[in-house]
Write a sequence for this structure.
């Protein structure tokens, strides 16, 4: 069709056909649907990222608690090693910190279920400061068993006593919900007249 000057043909030439009036809102609806789909994908990605952040935070907290308990166990072993004579044992602790508990003492049943306040009341405090922890790690030493033996040294004899200890430590992570308890056996030989 060639453009003409009458009003009817100008309207057709300008693109105002009845078909164009029907399609006027379709592109808007398709754009909005794509926007909704992209928003849902973005929200799903954010939720996944938040969940990964929580998991890594919990993992870090657990590792801090484990390392704190490991430090307290090593300090307990070092404390035993620093003793010149075998320390005496107690069955229950009247005033904390008690040095050495007897094996299976009444206060020490199922230490994994003990609260943070029980550990603070009965355990020995870790001597150094560890940053980033909700509470300082603590340890308890129990005498497990004793064996006596003789050593021949030079011309005389010296009696020795070998004592086996159980060292149990509790570490708390960055929050008090992360707790780790470690238990080791440690043997020390004490010399002298026994």
């Amino acid at each position: 069709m060639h453009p003409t000057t009458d009003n009817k043909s100008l309207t057709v030439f300008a693109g105002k056909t009845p078909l164009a009036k029907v399609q006027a809102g379709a592109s808007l609806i398709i754009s909005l649907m794509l926007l909704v789909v992209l928003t849902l994908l973005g929200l799903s990605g954010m939720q996944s990222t938040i969940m990964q952040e929580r998991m890594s935070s919990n993992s870090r907290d657990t590792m801090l608690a484990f390392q704190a308990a490991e430090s307290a166990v090593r300090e307990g072993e070092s404390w035993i090693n620093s003793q010149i004579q075998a320390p005496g044992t107690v069955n229950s602790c009247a005033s904390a910190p008690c040095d050495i508990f007897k094996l299976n003492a009444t206060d020490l049943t199922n230490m994994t279920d003990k609260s943070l306040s029980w550990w603070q009341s009965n355990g020995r405090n870790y001597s150094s400061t560890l940053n980033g922890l909700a509470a300082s790690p603590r340890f308890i030493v129990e005498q497990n068993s004793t064996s006596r033996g003789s050593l021949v040294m030079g011309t005389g004899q010296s009696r020795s006593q070998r004592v086996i200890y159980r060292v149990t430590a509790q570490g708390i992570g960055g929050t008090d919900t992360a707790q780790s308890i470690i238990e080791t056996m440690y043997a020390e030989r004490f010399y002298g007249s026994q």
Q: What stands out?
A: Helices lie at 7-13, 18-22, 26-82, 116-122.
